[in-house]
């Protein structure tokens, strides 16, 4: 996890937040994750923009990427979600793990 500051900075971009929400919603339906192409269709963004946003979200520790042949599957990071939950429960007492 890159830190709570990096997480909030990554999520402060409206397009990146939309990509993250798309990935999280898909995880509720399927454990496999979404490909960049699937995210592009749902977000109505072009591939370079989605790839950039996914890279920033992954660097912040919010998205895990796994490669299968030539496809990259994106899933929400359990550690990233847990850090957000810990912070929202007690922002004053939050410490980086």
What does this structure look like?
The chain has a single domain, classed as Orthogonal Bundle (Arc Repressor Mutant, subunit A), CATH 1.10.10.10. Helix content is 59%, strand content 14%. It has helices at residues 4-11, 14-29, 36-43, 47-59, 78-89; strands spanning 34-35, 63-68, 71-76. It has a 3-stranded antiparallel sheet with strand order 1-3-2. A hairpin with a 2-residue loop joins strand 2 and strand 3. Helix 3 (36-43) packs across helix 4. It is globular. It starts with a helix and ends in an 8-residue tail after the last helix.
What is the topology?
Elements: H1 4-11, H2 14-29, E1 34-35, H3 36-43, H4 47-59, E2 63-68, E3 71-76, H5 78-89
Antiparallel strand pairs: 1-3, 2-3
Tally of DSSP helical segments: 5
End-to-end Cα distance: 9 Å
Integer tally of domains = 1
Q: What is the string of SSEs from the N terminus onward?
A: HHEHHEEH
Structural shape:
globular
> Using only CA atoms, what is the Rg?
13 Å
Mean pLDDT: 89
**What is the architecture at the second tier of CATH?**
Orthogonal Bundle
Structural class: alpha+beta
CATH topology: Arc Repressor Mutant, subunit A
Number of strands: 3
Per CATH, the class reads Mainly Alpha
Major sheet details: 3 strands, antiparallel
**Can you tell me the residue ranges where pLDDT is under 50 for at least 5 consecutive residues?**
none
**Beta-strand content estimate:** 5-15%
Lateral arrangement of strands in the main beta sheet: 1-3-2
CATH superfamily: Winged helix-like DNA-binding domain superfamily/Winged helix DNA-binding domain
């Amino acid at each position: 996890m890159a830190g709570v500051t990096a997480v909030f900075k990554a999520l402060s971009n409206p397009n990146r937040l939309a990509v993250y929400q798309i990935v999280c919603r898909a995880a509720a339906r399927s454990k496999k994750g979404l490909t960049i192409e699937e995210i592009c269709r749902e977000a109505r963004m072009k591939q370079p923009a989605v790839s950039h946003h996914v890279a920033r979200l992954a660097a912040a520790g919010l998205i895990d990427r796994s490669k299968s042949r030539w496809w990259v599957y994106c899933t929400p990071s359990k550690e990233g979600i847990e850090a957000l939950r810990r912070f929202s429960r007690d922002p004053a007492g939050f410490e980086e793990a």
